[in-house]
Amino acid sequence: MRMAKTDYLERILNARVYDVAIESPLEPAPNLSKRTHNRILLKREDMQPVFSFKLRGAYNKMAHLKPDALARGVIAASAGNHAQGVALAAQRLGCTATIVMPVTTPDIKINAVRSRGAKVVLHGDSYAEAADHARLLEKRQRLTYVHPYDDPDVIAGQGTIAMEILRQHPEPIDAIFVAIGGGGLIAGIAAYVKRLRPEIKIIGVQPVDSDAMYQSIKAGRRVKLAQVGLFADGVAVKQVGKETFRLCRTLVDEIVRVDTDAMCAAIKDVFEDTRAILEPAGALAIAGAKAWAARRKVRNATLVAVACGANMNFDRLRFVAEEAELGEHREAILAVSIPEKPGSFKTFCELLGPRNVTEFNYRFDDPQKARVFVGVQVRNRQETEQLVKALRRKGLQTLDLSDNELAKLHVRHMVGGHAPGAKNEILYRFEFPEKPGALMRFLTSMSGGWNISLFHYRNHGADYGRVLVGMEVPPKDKAKFRDFLADVGYPCADESRNPAYRLFLS
């Protein structure tokens, strides 16, 4: 499969993709451009009929098959976007398509492939196992295998994106950022751009836990990763292709690696500019452009990022929303120790100042010291550092957990447990209008005579803030407590007899 890179120019110019693909727009991202001090343009491949660039390469490969090969049918292995591209191409070309998908593939993706008339075979727990089974069926049934990335016609089909970019923006471009999984997309783009506009940098972007191309170029040979991260499942490839590696090692200028938080932040960035929701792999290029520009202190450059897919699972959106603030360093996660005495909780809140509190987790544990897990909105990492210093100056032991994966993914949801030392504890659930200062006003209204033994609050972006509060209220103060509830005026419910509370918290 060794070919001169000049052959790809002809292949791309003669590629057949527009029977199924649109010429996707190249759009400015004004908010993101302003924040990064560069001109960032998004190549909107998420707007394709299957919400991904993959149909370009799949259709070009299949459109160039000989009639007898097409008549026998095609087969592919995929857990998502390539599967839909092959299914659509087969539907348009009037041939049969068999797609082998891992048994773990979400129903929404399986149904999307079936809706285009393809036969779905579920096999194995991973893409690798599905691909091995597809190769077996290929031989048994004399089908034509459509590789997701390591094929010259597939690479050429993806390369038509570069052809469009240079036509849509003939002015200078400093760099084009492209997600890398197996390497087909960036290989096609690089082959075209470096032939016609070699001064443009081609920069690949990979997740830190799925960086097979980065490791391969570094080693000078194709490296097979033992495992890959699955958050950006569209690029979760253990080993890149032979042809894609050959092209990338000579044509790609640099590879940037980013983490999950950065991808989530990029998803939010694109949403704020376009109201479109990209999948994690689809937002990789945007995350890479931001990281590259920040690291190199680049300003006033024209940067193109390929938004390559939008097949997002709906159940991931909450996780993405929470991680996005951390990825932009706009939420600080802190562990703070404060004296365990009435009123200290309120004093701590006053030290936070006018900042919006995104989360409070606290459970009575030590009679001398209270440990609070708190989230606070900040403008940047520097503000987090200033806040930590201010709390420490007041004698409060403070630990910044904003980059701690265990804290972000697990501990924030687990703070709590039984509190044998809590006396006369009652548990109430409150709702109050979610607006700046509402939480502080709620705390201010509480009597200084009752110790707070449990507190949980998380800003989910809803109209109402939801707070769970445990307080040590002696029986003699019950009437006074009822007066307090009336004065607060917020809707509330007594949860002291709730079985979940009794089993896990009381």
Tell me what the structure shows:
- The protein contains 20 helices and 18 strands.
- Helix 12 (260-274) crosses helix 13 (284-296).
- The chain has an eight-stranded antiparallel beta sheet with strand order 14-11-13-12-16-17-15-18. The protein has a six-stranded mixed beta sheet with strand order 1-2-10-7-8-9, with helices on both faces. Strands 5-4-3-6 form a four-stranded parallel beta sheet, with helices on both faces.
- The protein has three domains: 5-53 and 152-323, Rossmann fold (3-Layer(aba) Sandwich); 55-145, 3-Layer(aba) Sandwich (Rossmann fold); 329-504, Biosynthetic Threonine Deaminase, Domain 3 (Biosynthetic Threonine Deaminase, domain 3), CATH 3.40.1020.10.
- It has 506 residues and is an alpha/beta fold.
- Strand 16 and strand 17 form a beta hairpin.
- It is elongated, with a radius of gyration of 27 Å.
- The chain has helices at 5-13, 30-36, 54-63, 67-72, 81-93, 107-114, 127-141, 152-168, 184-196, 212-219, 242-251, 260-274, 284-296, 317-327, 344-351, 381-393, 405-409, 438-444, 478-488, 499-504; strands at 26-28, 39-44, 74-77, 97-101, 119-122, 144-145, 175-179, 201-207, 254-258, 302-307, 331-339, 357-363, 369-377, 397-400, 425-433, 451-458, 464-472, 492-494.
Q: Provide mean pLDDT, rounded.
A: 88
Q: Count the beta strands.
A: 18
Helix content: 40-55%
CATH topology of the largest domain: Rossmann fold
Radius of gyration: 27 Å
- Overall outline: elongated
Whole-number count of domains: 3
CATH class wording of the largest domain? Alpha Beta
- What are the segments in which pLDDT stays under 50 over at least 5 consecutive residues? 1-6
Strand order of the largest sheet: 14-11-13-12-16-17-15-18
